[in-house]
């Protein structure tokens, strides 16, 4: 397989990758804590690429949000155009991985659900997708054998094994690629284990993939333009 020939540096996918596709409810325990039924097909939604934020910059809590939740997730970075790929071939389209946070305005999401409205306000705001450095595929022989974790102010809040995913990565790639053609540099967030909770201004979030990498972000408050 080797490195995929690329016009753009995959190691900086967040600077040019176009789509962020997030899978919800992909860990049974998290679906349970959110009082959601287990999905029979992957539930997914989009974040704009402006949602990316990197270590060194803060996660901004939106002005309209009173309950900002963290969701730690394994991200899959796509290495070449994938349209309606089979599960069997799906991993050939993976360039590597990243640790990601799906930051969620939970109170806003609850309102959206109640009114039957899209989740964009809850999921797509600026800085709603913190990402770690890129991890080339060769460094993670089996993405379903990882442990991901998240601490807030030093206290462990989330810890999960990617082996507990309801839908596997090949299944997710195959399913999404039939609906949305995946492009080089696109990112798929594969769902969050249980333990999601609220963060406040000045909180420190520390998250990692055991034995691979970790990252840290501070939470700041958005002030509203008059």
UniProtKB/TrEMBL annotation:
Domain Fumarylacetoacetase-like C-terminal: residue ranges: 20-219
EC number: 3.7.1.5, 4.1.1.112, 5.3.2.2
CC terms in the record's Gene Ontology section: cytosol; mitochondrion; nucleoplasm
An annotated Gene Ontology molecular function: acetylpyruvate hydrolase activity
Keywords noted in UniProt: Metal-binding
Catalytic activity reported: acetylpyruvate + H2O = acetate + pyruvate + H(+); a 3-acylpyruvate + H2O = a carboxylate + pyruvate + H(+); oxaloacetate + H(+) = pyruvate + CO2; oxaloacetate = enol-oxaloacetate
Lineage top rank: taxon: Eukaryota
Metal-binding in keyword set: yes
One record GO biological process: oxaloacetate metabolic process
UniProt xrefs under Pfam families: FAA_hydrolase
InterPro entries: Fumarylacetoacetase-like_C (IPR011234), Fumarylacetoacetase_C_sf (IPR036663)
Keyword Metal-binding: yes
Similarity remark: Belongs to the FAH family.
Descriptive protein name: Oxaloacetate tautomerase FAHD1, mitochondrial
């Amino acid at each position: 397989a080797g490195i995929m020939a690329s016009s753009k540096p995959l190691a900086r996918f967040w600077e040019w990758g176009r789509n962020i596709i997030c899978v919800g409810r992909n860990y049974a325990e998290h679906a349970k804590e959110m009082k959601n039924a287990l999905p029979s097909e992957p539930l997914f939604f989009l974040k704009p690429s402006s949602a990316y934020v990197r270590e060194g910059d803060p996660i901004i809590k939106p002005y309209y949000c009173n309950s900002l939740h963290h969701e730690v997730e394994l991200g899959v970075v796509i290495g070449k155009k994938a349209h309606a790929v089979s599960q069997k071939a799906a991993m050939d389209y993976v360039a590597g991985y990243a640790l990601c946070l799906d930051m969620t305005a939970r109170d806003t999401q609850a309102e959206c659900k109640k009114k039957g409205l899209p989740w964009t306000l809850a999921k797509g705001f600026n800085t709603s997708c913190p990402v770690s450095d890129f991890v080339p595929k060769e460094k993670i022989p089996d993405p379903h054998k990882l442990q991901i974790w998240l601490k807030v102010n030093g206290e462990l809040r989330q810890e999960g094994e990617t082996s507990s995913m309801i839908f596997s990565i090949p299944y997710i790639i195959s399913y999404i690629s039939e609906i949305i053609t995946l492009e080089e540099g696109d990112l798929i967030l594969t769902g969050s284990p249980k333990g999601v909770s609220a963060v406040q201004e000045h909180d420190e979030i520390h998250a990692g993939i055991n034995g691979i990498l970790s990252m840290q972000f501070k939470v700041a408050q958005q002030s509203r333009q008059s």
